[in-house]
Amino acid sequence: PGYYNADQIRAIANENFPDEYNAIPDADQLPWEQQDDTATFHKETLFIGYVKIDNMIWKVSAYMLRSTGEIHLYRNGMRLTRADNAHLRLGIPWSYLREGGERPHLRDLQVLCQNYFVGAEFAVGVKVKDGSWFKRLSLACKAVGEGLGLL
User: Which domain of life is it from (predicted)?
Assistant: First the structure.
């Protein structure tokens, strides 16, 4: 538990799961975008895929809350609901995060997004409530690395 900046996250990852951590793409290789609500969220958003709702396909991006560091998924300015998440189609590298071969494991997605926001220095750090955050990061990195054929 505690607050971790990019250097601390990298150090822990390189000590505990270096192959997995080094298999994921660098933050500068990802499709970053900018949005207008900088009071609530960090200015940068991360494109992660698409969602089909009412026979329309919407682009989905991950937003990071300034106050808590939580990741929220939005489409066209609207937060995705749990029902929307069932229709989420992730792009690469996010598509390699799977739960039961079907839906993405959203907690792993959130942790990996937090890692990227901090790693790109769009956020100063991330507050980790328990040891499961680094375990989730390790699992997410492994899934992406295997999906990319690097592990």
Answer: Eukaryota
Residue 124 confidence (pLDDT): 95
- Taking phi over 0 as left and psi of -120 to 50 as alpha, with beta for the rest, 111 belongs to alpha
Q: What DSSP designation does 57 have?
A: E
Separation of alpha carbons 85 and 80, rounded Å: 7
Structural domain spans, the chain = 2-147
The b-or-e profile of 128-139 (16+ CB within 10 A means b, else e) is beeeebbebbbb
Contact between residue 94 and residue 48 where contact means Cβ atoms under 8 Å apart: yes
Question: CA-CA distance, 145 to 75, in Å (whole number)?
Answer: 27
pTM: 0.92
Which two three-digit tokens encode residue 69?
């560091």
The predicted model gives 34-51 an average pLDDT of 91
CA–CA dist 78, 100 (Å, integer): 27
CA dihedral 111, 115, 116, 122 (to 10 degrees): 120
Q: Locate 118 and state its tokens.
A: 């901090």
